[in-house]
Amino acid sequence: MAPKMKKFKKSSKNPIYDTNWCDMPPEIKVKCIGKMEFKERLLLRCTAKAERSLVDSQKIEFQNGEFWADDEDIVFKLNRGKNSNFLKSPKNINVAVGFLKYIKKVGVFENLKLCFGDLFTDNEQFNTDDGLFAAKKVEIEQCEMDNVVPSILWEIEDGVESIKINVDRKVFRQFDELLEISNVFQVQNVPYWHLQNYGESDSLHKVAKMWIETNAKVGFTFQASIYKEGSFAAFLEHFTDSIVSKDERRVRIRTKNPDIHILLERGLDEIVETDDIPQFSRLRVIPAEMKKSEYDNNCKEWISIMDPDVYESESESEEEWPEYFGISFDEDEDGDDFDPVDYYTL
Q1: 96 contacts: CB under 8 Å, gap ≥ 6
Q2: CA neighbor of 297 nearest in space, from 267, 274, 276, 275
């Protein structure tokens, strides 16, 4: 039986207890943990196994998270709000992997950015971990490495609302595999995703084919910035028998479902022209009864999601951008001493 605690009378909505932390029942500790910031939880985790279990049982929400790594550096940036930032740069790969395992267990992200090449995806401990990242919006960079993007997506929990992938004009051999990922993370069911700086002309017709086979929902959207000519022509060639209408800017095709069509739109206006590279395209699943008068003729908004520099003046382009999500991060005052392996040991 939990020890009886003496309650002080005080003009407060929440009662104040005269007792030590170790004397509190688990249900009270859990409520306290729920109000703790991330650093406080890490400190509590290393005090005892029982406390670690309690901390690990409680999810923690982050507004933004970025995990970046190359052969020389590893950087983790976490943000829970205006004045709640966490920045660490582990020097040991095992500590870094342990930290990621802990984050996958407890973290829930609004925005999650992953930029770590094959440093983690080739790590056996990372790949064999059963935990999954939970996030609404996912952004992936440095995905020119073989198998990196599929490996990362296998680590993402289902239910993601958007994916942004930047291949940085490098060779990307895993596009077909990307479309086939299912089970843990179903890329087929993501309402919005885009492929930035892609170097081939096959993405548009392959995504449309996937949507037809999976009977995608109205509203699903795929966008691409492509550094190779021929995507529009390739789409026409693959769906010649399904074309409902076409002009210089759009192609509309029917699907197996009589209630939905797929609309391909080219990003063309007074700034972005036909012969420009990259070429911008958008695929949408639309209701079959949608009229041409309902089309969106303003491509600036959706192009800017992928490449805001297209519509910026030269002076604006030269301005210094915020380091990360518009937030300034300060190194933890404890420096590397704040990174004992026990914080991340599961």
Answers
A1: 69, 74, 76, 90, 120
A2: 267
Task: Show the tokens assigned to 73.
Answer: 């550096």
pLDDT of residue 143: 54
**Distant-in-sequence, close-in-space partners of 210: CB < 8 Å, separation ≥ 6:** 179, 188, 216
DSSP three-state, residue 98: helix
Average pLDDT rounded to a whole number, residues 274-284: 88
**Strand-pair partners of 308:** none
Per-residue pLDDT, 44: 93
Please give the DSSP secondary-structure letter assigned to residue 201: S
Top-tier CATH class for 195-297: alpha beta
Average pLDDT over residues 76-89: 88
Residue 73 makes CB contacts below 8 A (sequence gap 6+) with 89
* Most confidently modeled range among 150-164, 244-258, 259-273: 244-258
pLDDT digits (tens, 9 = 90+) for 133-192: 899 999 988 655 556 676 777 778 888 899 998 887 665 666 766 777 654 345 778 899
> What's the one-letter identity of residue 267?
G
> What are the residues whose beta carbons fall under 8 Å from the beta carbon of 48, sequence distance 6 or more?
none
Helix (H) or strand (E) holding 112: strand 107-115
Say how far apart CA 187 and CA 189 lie, in whole Å.
5
Contact by Cβ (8 Å): 65, 113: yes
Burial class (CB in 10 A: 0-12, 13-18, 19+), 236: middle
Number of H helices, E strands in the chain: 12, 14
First to last CA, the chain: 28
Bridge partners, residue 137, by sequence: 111, 162
Residue 297: how many CB atoms within 10 A of its CB?
7
277 near 227, Cβ under 8 Å? yes
Higher pLDDT, 135 or 344: 135
Q: Phi and psi (nearest 5°) for 194?
A: -140, 155
